[in-house]
Amino acid sequence: MQNKITLKLMPLFFFIIFLGCAANTTPPVVDKNVIKTASKEFHRFDFKENQPVNTKEFVKKVDNFTVIFDPSASMTETYTPSNDCIACHTDHQHPEYAENHAVKHGGLEFADEDKRQYAMECNRCHQNLLYSKFKFAKELTKGFNQAIPDLDFTGTIRTFGYPVYTNFEYGLKENDNTKFLNYNKNEYAHAIDKILDADGVSPLAPTLKATGKDWYNHKGKIAVIIISDGKDMGEKEVLTAQDLKAKYEEDICIYTILIGKDPSGKKVMDRIAMSGQCGLAINGDDLLDKEKMVQFVHEIFLTRVQPDSDGDGVTDDRDDCPGTKPGLKVDENGCWDLVLQADVLFDFDKHILKPEGITALEQVVALLKRHSFLDLHISGHTDNFGSMKYNIKLSRQRAQTGFDYLKKRGIDSGRLSISWHSFSIPISTNDNPAGRALNRRLEFKFKKRQE
């Protein structure tokens, strides 16, 4: 039994001795299990191991996204890592650091005493220094795709530079280029693989314009992710990004992933991201760290579930009328969407309030007094019985009656406004009594006052 324990502890014994003898430059011999475990931790490209980010306690932040991928000629240049990576790899010139690093991160070189073989294995392990920017960007994009959460999105890919100024690589239905495909992770990865060559100039500006047109008739929030070295770009691209933001306003955010470390490219990519006002700029090297990749994907696609304290279906962060009573119909801002039938408020062809009408308007008074930050617009509507001129007069009188009653009950007239529309905005048919009854109405639109 003792011999067995001794045998099991021997590899650990030699490992500890090695760590204590940093001056010894002979490649160490380490247990193969240590090698296998440690080698998994090294920052080689293992994006296929990326998993979709966890969506627990999160909901979709966007509905649609476009990856704009740069396969222009400058992307054929040798990939140059960021300064942090360069500092790390420069440290490998020192034997003590190199050996300790090798012990920590693993590699087949541990069992070989040939220094040249040791160096070759290290170089092979650190193959990302030999990548072109194009190849690095493709691997990074595939890893990004793997990390996108498993939710219902519409996703597209656009490229620029080769073979045409801008090309649509993925997202449209094959036999109908007016309809988008639902995002599919495997199909998206295949589309990335099909981007085979890098050549040509860098027409990012026309590509941003084309992206704006892509989503013109599509509803929902949009994320644009630009993956590029930023070379041969400048003010034109920044201004086009600003135009894109102006077109979609709060419905679009722009994110940039810089490939390499070209200073002018970084400056342009940073400014493009700033144009989106809600995105961010990051270096592709940072996304080699899986935790940072997860954080980046979270930032683009997810947001925390927001509470809905009054249960009206509008979350607190968007609710202009908190505390709405349960069961009331609300608009997109969480405010009471009130429509009162004229037959409840007035007798036929009259504009004097009935008792039932006063009871109904008292609810409006209570709401306006409880929420002093709300303004109210009242609009009067009729059916098509009678002439347009007559119904204009009647709809105006009824709207004015509502205004006057609220003012009489202490509501500041500066918070109130009215309009009248006769039978020009029906909500039902005027061909039968039931439809005409629905069209005779007062609508009450509450809105948070703009300071």
Automatic annotation (TrEMBL):
Signal peptide: 1-22
One function term, GO molecular function aspect: calcium ion binding
Family annotation (CDD domains): OmpA_C-like
GO cellular component: cell outer membrane
Localisation per UniProt entry: Cell outer membrane
Domain OmpA-like, first and last residues per copy: 333-450
Transmembrane segments: none
Superkingdom to which the source organism belongs: Bacteria
This protein's UniProt keywords: Cell outer membrane, Membrane, Signal
Pfam families to which the protein is assigned, alphabetical: OmpA (PF00691)
Keyword Lipid metabolism attached: no
Name this polypeptide is given: OmpA-OmpF porin, OOP family
Organism: Desulfobacula phenolica
Lineage of the species this protein comes from: Bacteria, Pseudomonadati, Thermodesulfobacteriota, Desulfobacteria, Desulfobacterales
